[in-house]
Write a structure and sequence with these properties.
This protein is α+β, with helices and mostly antiparallel strands. It has 2 domains: 1-42, no CATH class; 45-266, Umud Fragment, subunit A. It is built from 3 helices and 16 strands.
């Protein structure tokens, strides 16, 4: 967010100082603002990834575009979640395996990004690190032992490819093995019109397993589907004061989220 604000300020200053008149600059800024607001509300909204809960799918410093139209529109599609839409309109049900951005039910304000695991009516449980959906164990293959080349330069020995019941694949990380506190859970029954979401960094994610903070996510709280990484910066713990030490991850720019994982498994 800080970087986005800084870039916006630089853009405004550039327009002001390069325009022939202040009036012309004002017109350009207002017009650009309306266009950006229209695109952000109805089509795509940019987000940055501030935490490691979705590693290795999404890294800290990734910039992603989220499609606003994919699941229809709710009040959370609007700037500041303005209460102008009472019920979701033009709605389409998300699919298991989608990476989605949503507002946490705890405050209806904070943006989280996670993988959609459970649909309404599903029973979800994790036992010794293995995901179970409706009593059936979800297939999980260790990436390190796989003969298939998955195009991701950020994988390690703690990573697995998880194959969901609908055939969708994604990579999960188990840094603490299969016996961390979040690797053995109760059975969660997903209520109607709600979804169960989990971070791909399974031992380092506050998600639907934490009922008193995230828990089940109402359809209304879902903002959209994360589609593409349009930029990525490795800040390497350097803050804004040392921004010149940041490195651009060129190999992640333009990456469609989880697409290559699914292509390789389907073609094997």
């Amino acid at each position: 967010m800080q970087l986005s604000i800084i870039l916006l300020i630089f853009l405004v200053l550039y327009i002001v100082f390069t325009s022939e008149s202040k009036r012309e600059a004002f017109k350009i800024i207002i017009s650009a603002g309306f266009i950006a607001l229209f695109i952000r509300t109805f089509f795509f909204q940019p987000f940055t990834i501030p935490s490691g809960s979705m590693i290795p799918t999404l890294l800290i410093g990734d910039f992603i575009f989220v499609s606003q139209y994919k699941y229809g529109y709710s009040k959370h599609s609007l700037p500041f979640s303005l209460p102008l839409i009472k019920e979701r309109i033009l709605k389409k049900t998300p699919e298991r395996g989608d990476v989605v951005v949503f507002k946490t039910p705890n405050d209806n304000r904070t943006d989280y990004v996670k993988t959609l695991i459970g649909l309404p009516g599903d029973k979800i449980q994790v036992k010794e690190g293995i995901l179970y959906i409706n009593g059936k164990m979800v297939e999980r293959n260790k990436v390190q032992n796989s003969t298939m080349r998955v195009h991701n330069n950020y994988l390690n020995k703690f990573d697995y490819v998880e194959v969901l019941p609908n055939g969708r694949k994604h990579i999960v990380r188990e840094l603490k093995g299969d016996n961390s506190p979040s690797d053995n859970t109760i059975i969660y029954t997903v209520p109607e019109n709600n979804f169960f979401l989990m971070g791909d960094n399974r031992d380092n994610s506050i998600d639907s397993r934490v009922l008193n903070y995230v828990g089940f996510v109402p359809f209304e709280n879902i903002v959209g589907k994360a589609e593409i990484i349009f930029f990525s910066i490795d800040r390497n713990a350097y803050g804004l004061k040392k921004f010149w030490k940041w490195k651009i991850r060129f190999d992640r720019i333009g990456k469609l989220i989880n697409k290559k994982v699914n292509i390789f498994y389907e073609s094997s």
